[in-house]
Amino acid sequence: MSTENFPSATTLPAKDIGRLLLRCADRPGLVAAISAFLSDAGANIISLDQHSTTQTGGTFMQRTIFHMAGLSAARDALERDFAAQVAEPFGMEFRLTEAAKPKRVAIMASREDHCLLDLLWRNRRGELDMSVAMVISNHPDLADQVRPFGVPFLHVPAHKDIRAEAESRQLDLLRGNVDLVVLARYMQILSGRFLTEVGCPLINIHHSFLPAFVGEAPYRKARERGVKLVGATAHYVTEELDEGPIIEQDVVRVDHRHTVDDLRRLGADVERVVLSRAVLWHCEDRIVQHGNQTIVL
Amino acid sequence: MSTENFPSATTLPAKDIGRLLLRCADRPGLVAAISAFLSDAGANIISLDQHSTTQTGGTFMQRTIFHMAGLSAARDALERDFAAQVAEPFGMEFRLTEAAKPKRVAIMASREDHCLLDLLWRNRRGELDMSVAMVISNHPDLADQVRPFGVPFLHVPAHKDIRAEAESRQLDLLRGNVDLVVLARYMQILSGRFLTEVGCPLINIHHSFLPAFVGEAPYRKARERGVKLVGATAHYVTEELDEGPIIEQDVVRVDHRHTVDDLRRLGADVERVVLSRAVLWHCEDRIVQHGNQTIVL
Amino acid sequence: MSTENFPSATTLPAKDIGRLLLRCADRPGLVAAISAFLSDAGANIISLDQHSTTQTGGTFMQRTIFHMAGLSAARDALERDFAAQVAEPFGMEFRLTEAAKPKRVAIMASREDHCLLDLLWRNRRGELDMSVAMVISNHPDLADQVRPFGVPFLHVPAHKDIRAEAESRQLDLLRGNVDLVVLARYMQILSGRFLTEVGCPLINIHHSFLPAFVGEAPYRKARERGVKLVGATAHYVTEELDEGPIIEQDVVRVDHRHTVDDLRRLGADVERVVLSRAVLWHCEDRIVQHGNQTIVL
Amino acid sequence: MSTENFPSATTLPAKDIGRLLLRCADRPGLVAAISAFLSDAGANIISLDQHSTTQTGGTFMQRTIFHMAGLSAARDALERDFAAQVAEPFGMEFRLTEAAKPKRVAIMASREDHCLLDLLWRNRRGELDMSVAMVISNHPDLADQVRPFGVPFLHVPAHKDIRAEAESRQLDLLRGNVDLVVLARYMQILSGRFLTEVGCPLINIHHSFLPAFVGEAPYRKARERGVKLVGATAHYVTEELDEGPIIEQDVVRVDHRHTVDDLRRLGADVERVVLSRAVLWHCEDRIVQHGNQTIVL
């Protein structure tokens, strides 16, 4: 293929950009049917990523970004037509969103600031495609650091003896008000009831090591074992603690000269980067869950 | 989206797998037109990656992997029909290949063995999708290491005083016989005439540093400058020495304890990994050149 | 070597911890002489790193961390004795510092906040061993973000037409008051006179790419060239712009799906990590300059 | 510290280079005593790395590389004197080796070639400081690939039903003949008796994931779980399967587009790099075991 000049990038107004995320049993003609529907509706495909779990007979997933003049007004009709003409015949689950309507997000934290502040700071820079509705913490410590970002800081005391009342108060704040809850080093266990009733996905971050060190003082154990890598994993929250579908992972090299404090500091660096990537991808509608895994399109 | 069981991967026979790589000016309806053509032809899209250089008015590129029973027999007709019905109306360049027909590759080397042997070894393991037609070297040193792989080793002496004759002999060996030439630490400059007449793409590997160290003894200079990273770049060869479109890059961390020999050894490790990735991607028809860049789909 | 129980780490009070950084022509007996001096003075070596540029006849560098009860009171005598008994006979340059006396640091910035806020935030967490005396900016924009950290924000307008006056005002603020100046995306050139008169080292951060893209809009150029890595380099400032001794470098992988904005965002992530490592190492007296390189011990 | 010219590196003859690796309870005066001993013996310290597990009261480890004219002849006396004058008074374990006497190594493998060939190939290039005495395999498959390296290939059938006889034959070959056994994807369990009687350390390589996938088909499980990193761990072998002290670890990024075969291929790349680093460090006497960890000096 020959060469040509490279035009400088231009950006269309977000208000006319739509995202279509879908999943169904794989079968011939899917891409053609979806593309034809969008084309007939006057939408131009800007980017399209698809994935099939196997070459035949598996699950098909697709993320399509399209431009359509007047999307906001036409959105409901588009969704209805897609459901009737494509999704139903193909037995498809789908989600249609507008880039101009950022997700409403609550961040829950305890005393550690690194993940929380990094999310707030990135969002202020415009790096994350979200609107932070509130920060909920079971400790008052971080209020002064959160409020300058113009975000409500809500102190809801919580520990294992008052879990039920605490979760009720949290649910009153969250239910219907947010599209995503981010656990940014929130150090309380959440009950299955909470996960069901909150009505939106939750993303959590935790450290990860090879081998795994469970229980108390993982960084001390990791140092005693002489690990050469310290990492973090961001995942969707399910009732199985720290076992939900992995969204993103990364590691940093360490050696015997690093103290336990050094490991904790380096681990915190990885945690905030990994969590921010996971939140960004979720807010951009890039992630399809499939069984206990995620596909990031 | 809910969860379900994850089927184990199955692989279709390579003989019915086709790859369609294409590029054209972006405009509405492209994905729909291509998908409809393949669907009508009885081909099922297994994977599809596309990229547009800008949201509107840029260049559109797409790589489609499809399954089509009896592809080998139907290939010529399919190509002709695609050209007439899609490529011509949309002003499209395209390439249609069969996964069952691996590219014929020549490897050119000098005295250093690391990139050459790594390619031969990976190919024997079935990791690279290629058929190595010959190894050409301007030194006889590596013959005993190459021949056990069942690959012809051809010694064509070459240095700057006999470049023209050497290149003529090399062209006699290569022209029409190979689809790709890999320069695996081939330490002679190739003329513009050679690049034109060989009639296929060439991939080269070279070390890379930040900042760049040109001329003799780059590893010694890099150590004297105290660089913290040593890397390698694989690129298509153009007449501008080491300036062709970048296919892949990677680096490894180094520090003051590494001697010049250590840097060379670590650099060699990066070179062989980076070169093998570039060759694999080329052989899988993943790479679209666009101006002086590559898009790896 | 057999195994035994691993005691949990304990930390001595910083007030009795000293650091000795030295450099001289290599010759037999250096480590022995230095160790004997410290041992005789009642100091216990906690850690010792040394490096020789060549196996014989090169330059010898050593960083020693030691514990000595009552160091603060004894420091001046210790320094005098070391100079007379060791440094002078061996023709040695050295620096003796106390861990309990953090370096006084000024941060200079312009409009971009990522490096500046990351340093302030890490310092508040206790990750950096420094005392931030002031932030100087040629723009007022970041005042509200800096002052909550309890650090003076000083607005000194500067651009190329008023460089001389601006630098005079900056020198009035800095001279004698700080041990280090960190340029955290300070977008003005500093004159040779400034570098001489400020009387302390300066550390700068800049993006880095392979190949290098000089001048305006480097991220746009990097995207047009299809680079696969985006990085950053922290270095000491010399009169040669961006050419001073490299302290630290790192990179992050990118691909064709990243927009220019994505590259800038990912580059900013690397910049803040790389700069913070360089500042930490400097504040811990880990860095020996040697010619145009640094050795990080 | 000011700047000066940087001399080019020169290398002393290996025959006069010694390595002293030691470990003892930490106490004041250790570095001074060791340095004074070497200095008095006419040895010049080329490099010295030490580590203490805690600032006081922990374990002290040191690796010293020194140059001493006529080392080979003087070695036994030097060892005896060091034992009497330093090791005994300080309760020290130590090992004194000569760089000119590479370790004798046996490699055990099964059917997979990637780790085995990489070690042989690196050793032929002079990258590893070892002499390969033999390759032992429980399958005949790799004979033709091993013998061109000039290394004996010994086929000792082994599976769980004939473990005792197989291990007896292996021990007959190994005992007294080698200083290190490398398990380069040797797929049989070795008994505690074998580990005791072989009389030298063993290094093993295995894949590693986050989270860990135990049992059969780990790469398939890893893909089903959607891991974003695939890695490898090299460790000393103890009776606890895959639980011995970690020497080195590394990872590579993967995503949903990678098939199980891709993961296996990328994992193999990491395995061979990680194993070769571990073997190199062991052969250079860099590794001190301490409890269930290693310190790599």
Structure report:
By secondary structure, chain A is of the alpha/beta class. Chain A folds into 2 domains: 14-98, ACT domain (Alpha-Beta Plaits); 103-296, Rossmann fold. Helix content of chain A is 32%, strand content 29%. Chain A has helices spanning 30-40, 71-90, 114-124, 143-146, 163-174, 192-197, 218-225, 260-283, and strands at 17-25, 44-52, 59-67, 93-98, 103-109, 130-137, 153-155, 180-183, 202-208, 229-236, 246-253, 287-290, 293-296. In chain A, strands 7-6-5-8-9-10-11 form a 7-stranded mixed β-sheet, covered by helices on one side. In chain A, helix 3 links the parallel strand 5 and strand 6. The longest helix of chain A has 24 residues, at 260-283. The radius of gyration of chain A is 21 Å and the shape is globular. Mean pLDDT of chain A is 90; it is low at 1-10. Chains in contact: A-B, A-C, A-D, B-C, B-D, C-D. At the A-B interface, helix 1, strand 2 and strand 12 of A face helix 1, strand 2 and strand 12 of B. Chains A, B, C, D: Keywords: Hydrolase, One-carbon metabolism, Purine biosynthesis. Chains A, B, C, D: It holds the Pfam family Formyl_trans_N. Chains A, B, C, D: GO terms for molecular function: formyltetrahydrofolate deformylase activity. Chains A, B, C, D: It catalyses: (6R)-10-formyltetrahydrofolate + H2O = (6S)-5,6,7,8-tetrahydrofolate + formate + H(+).
